[in-house]
Amino acid sequence: MTDYFKRNLGKDLQLRTIYENTLREERKKSGKKRAKNVILAGLASVIALSALVAFKKPYNETNANQKTSSAYNIEAHAYAGSAASANCYPANLELTVENETIDNKISTAATASRTAKTESVASLNSIDGIIGRITREIPKEKLEYYISNKNIVHMDESYLPLIQKFASKIDIAKVAAIIEAESRWDPTCESGCGAYGLMQIMQNSSTPYEWKNKTNPELNISAGIRIWKAKESALKFCEPPEELKNSDSKAYYSAMWEHFKLTAVAYNSGQWPVIDALEMAAKKNGKEYWKQTWADVAPYIETACSQYYYYPGSKAEEIKGYVSKVTKYYSIYSTEFTIEKIAGSRDSISSITSQLEKKLGNNK
């Protein structure tokens, strides 16, 4: 406040009023500033205290051979303020924590947690734990079929990465079943009609590059999978409607199983004999194409083949045997790949199947 105001306060009421209002405003500003500093000091105290507690240093033992119950003394100092006002608000906090009590409780809880977690993981990953999951997730009859027939397949595991590389959305068990039926995993296999390699590709307009390099297993598998996809696409008209999956999933997957058999026939003989046989069956039984089963179509396959093969009877018998083999191999491979997925790798499949065989044998 200026000297002029102070000298004339008693003479002029207006000047006094101005002086008092000015003084009141200054006090308000000063109070806000102090409150702000106090809040900053409190926040700094909390931050400093948290940092010190988190990184507290262990007490120094005065005697290495004697345990002590001395306390940790943690002192936290926080400062906040304005340089202009030079006001500091120290916040001194001293915490006394009995180290043995707290440390022992923390150590005991951590040990118990680690032990429980280790036991849980060990239980899940143990042979018994894996077998428990397998028996819960795979139907018993499917497991029994796999155990009884697993030795009839001859998979060469070195080709699995190639199958996975090109299969995309195709179930790799289907590809494995086709290779088993076509060549028994022999990359040099050659049929009497000129088909070659793991998936027995033929020399035609769709495989010119692969045929030039027919001894290359990667190109053979790539071409075979491409041909399989083409056959699936050609027979898409007899796939069950997608909405059936939600309304009646059992009927949907049953129809897809039949569609798999028809696709296998198309891979072996071409799609046209299958399409012709489907039309004959539909005219006879009146069912929609997607409801036709292999049992419905098989009686007409010889007639259908007569337009495409010199010996339709022999071809029809070959096709029927082929479908039987492919479906059997698929059941075995699909079960084995499911077991592998549950186990996490192929390394332990042999010991797992031995244990499954014992378990299923004891339950009979």
Describe this structure in words.
It is a single chain. This protein is mostly helical and 364 residues long. The chain has two domains: 3-59 and 68-98; 139-362, Lysozyme. It is built from 16 helices and two strands. It has helices spanning 3-7, 13-54, 99-125, 127-137, 140-149, 160-167, 172-183, 208-212, 217-234, 244-247, 249-269, 271-285, 294-297, 301-305, 312-343, 349-362; strands at residues 71-78, 91-98. Helix 5 crosses helix 16, helix 9 packs across helix 11 and helix 11 crosses helix 12 (271-285). It is elongated and about 120 Å long.
Quote the beta fraction: under 5%
- Unreliable sequence segments: 55-100, 115-124
Query: Distance between the terminal alpha carbons, to the nearest Å?
Result: 106 Å
Q: What is the strand tally? A: 2
Strand order of the largest sheet: 1-2
- Name of the CATH class of the largest domain: Mainly Alpha
Q: Radius of gyration in whole Å, from Cα? A: 41 Å
CATH architecture of the largest domain: Orthogonal Bundle
Number of helical segments? 16
Order of helices and strands: HHEEHHHHHHHHHHHHHH
Domain module count? 2
What coarse outline follows from CA principal-axis ratios? elongated
Could you describe the largest sheet, including whether it forms a barrel? 2 strands, antiparallel
Look at the helices and sheets and give the structural class: mainly alpha
- Average pLDDT confidence is 78
Residue share in helices?
Answer: 55-70%
Secondary structure layout plus pairing:
Layout: H1 3-7, H2 13-54, E1 71-78, E2 91-98, H3 99-125, H4 127-137, H5 140-149, H6 160-167, H7 172-183, H8 208-212, H9 217-234, H10 244-247, H11 249-269, H12 271-285, H13 294-297, H14 301-305, H15 312-343, H16 349-362
Antiparallel strand pairs: 1-2
